[in-house]
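Class prep. Write one:
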Amino acid sequence: MTKMSHSNVWLIYLGILFFLYPVIAHTLMYELNIWVDVLPHTAFWVLIQVLLSSPMLILLGLLLYFKYGSLLINKILGALSFVIGFIWFIVIVKTIIGEAS
């Protein structure tokens, strides 16, 4: 692995952490009722939470798994990111359907 691709992997990891924050915040605040008024949940985070977090987690997970999958840890974390993004997509769709009805 070259130095350039090594820095790309860290950028992917940082992107996964950034887009994983809304998932964790939603789970803590609305599912577990922990830190309801402590974590930020402004319009900016809601936009990231609803529109960007799931597709980006899926995309970054696939990128990490297939492009940088020569290391086992990249394959594991890529697959985990993909699964979390897919489950998060299902949760968002269920929430939207539940609020619409």
Notes: The mean pLDDT is 85.
